[in-house]
Amino acid sequence: xxxxxxxxxAYWKENLTYITILLSIWFVVSYVCGILIADPLDAxxxxxxxxxxxxxxxxxxxxxxxxxxxxxxxMNNLDRKYDVHED
Amino acid sequence: MGILAWTWIIVGASFALYIGIxxxxxxxxxxxxxxxxxxxxxxxxxxxxxxxxxxxASFISMAGLISFLGRDGSMYLMGWTGGYxxxxxxxxxxxxxxxxxxxxxxxGDRYYSQSARVIALCCAxxxxxTYVAGQMRGVGIVFARFLEMDINTGxxxxxxxxxxxxxxxxxxxxxxxxxxxxxxxxxxYMIPAIFVxxxxxxxxxxxxxxxSAISAGGAQILGDASVQGKYLLDVVDxxxxxxxxxxxxxxxxxxxxxxxxxxxLMVGTxxxxxxxxxxxxVPKIRDARSSAGYALICIAILYTTAPAVAxxxxxxxxxxxxxxxxxxxxxxxxxxxxTKLVAWKDKNGxxxxxxxxxxITDDKSANELKIDNDIIVLASxxxxxxxxxxxxxxxxxxxxxxLSTAAGLLLVIAAAVSHDLLKSFLTPNMTExxxxxxxRIAAGVAVCIAGLFGIxxxxxxxxxxxxxxxxxxASFFPAIIMGVFNRKxxxxxxxxxxxxxxxxxxxxxxWFKFMNPASYNVAANWWFGISPEGIGTVGMFLNFxxxxxxxxxxxxxxxxxxxxxxxxxxxxKNVPKASSH
Lengths: 87, 581
Prior knowledge:
Shape of chain B: globular
Order of helices and strands of chain B: HHHHHHHHHHHHHHHEHEEEHHHHHHHHH
Oligomer: heterodimer
Strand content of chain B: under 5%
Largest sheet of chain B: 2 strands, antiparallel
Largest interface: A-B, 45 and 51 residues
Radius of gyration of chain B: 24 Å
Helix content of chain B: 55-70%
Helix content of chain A: over 70%
Number of helices of chain B: 25
């Protein structure tokens, strides 16, 4: 029983670490690159897109999708590691 | 075959499909009615969530809105997608582990309080009704424009359809209809976008097309050989400069306001009950995570295309209308004039259309053109000279977007009434069969009220959309997040937080939107330059702070509640199957 509790706390801690890292990226691509420093970023371009404009318009959405699937992958591994993977 | 005949055929066929699905997916139990027996495949749930989420406004109006806002329009693009990251990481898996049916039920159990459940249920009903009113109106408008029917008749047809599949199938019927509706709406949105992209830039992927250079064919369509080979967005920026507008790719709104609106929209999305309950329908906890990812893919396909459609439309409008003789106006302009979505008023009497800053109604402005937001999606098949059946498909897509969102919202209302109000509060002795009947009746009544809102739209519908997001952000989101992530938050903290969040947010919106004239609702009068649309963010922070502080000074939640919280965080081999109470 006590074992379970320790395991559970470790699992939760790792989960919180993943969430913190991924949500920091989430914040940077949308709020920082797409809003706060969009104007200076606009000095650079990729193709016909100014960089800040691209982050605001498309880049953040694409990265959001990637972030969710990275989280899914990390958590599936974590579930296996702690032997709580659902069949 | 004409546009009207094609529209009847395609809209008729899509409706027949939805009705067929409704008969096939009839709900047999309350678990079926509220959560589709928790057996929906995560990819299908992702598609259903996409249709549930994307409303008539996303489909018809968003591209137009962005076309006129330029980079500031990104607050909608980011705000209405970023919430899914929060859902995947902070809400969906834990609420799925909880394994019951409604958001108010979770709040009530977690905060061991019927009053908390009642506050949550009132919020859920209010938020859903404000949202649904616009959807039913949207159905009516699509009918009116494409099928030349009376708007009210359109609303009634839409009501009858939603009534049929929502009361019969509940969540199960709604889910599978939404999957079909997603397919219809995404095809309808992408086909014209792809063709316009090919015509202007030669790139078949619209998401990349608007960052490409204008092709020779594109320059010909725009009637200006000099733009060939230039980047499309640079051309739009140049045109804006010539006309006295700020550059299309630059931001105009105060940064702090854009920042707060984006947060309010993201957090509001993650707190909207009709979005959250979609994640109760998947079989496993890990499916809840991946399903949020599939949902966001389905949504992002449209949301990354919308800014492309917006930029294409912008360059096309300015180039083919500004300084062009009315006699030479493109045919789509003349076709849509009768709908009053586009208009020309020859202020200087020279027979030439001039586009400039300011409203067409303002005689001091040199602007002679009115271009409604909605026209950008509605007229795009004609602008791209696509066959009539594509125009019909866009009509079916707009209807699919409006109907799917309406159905999802009506289910929230029905479940709040039958499950949270009747079963748990007023008449707890109901049998399963009676509860199912009550849920069907509640859904039916909700459809009728929504229809009335569609036929007699209260003048404030447009203003209250900010309400739905603001309230969801200031009430549900913090209550659920803290419910999972901080087991020490107790009933006193949660209730204080929700009440402060709601009163503050609602008060600010009412003050600026209803109690004062529109001229008062400007940046100079807002607190710290935050508009009513973004104030939900402040409400959310207040909720968090109050809940945390009050919980510090009041007794801890009972042990069994703290244990419930811990159990939510850990998948465990056996996910409890839903029970009916």
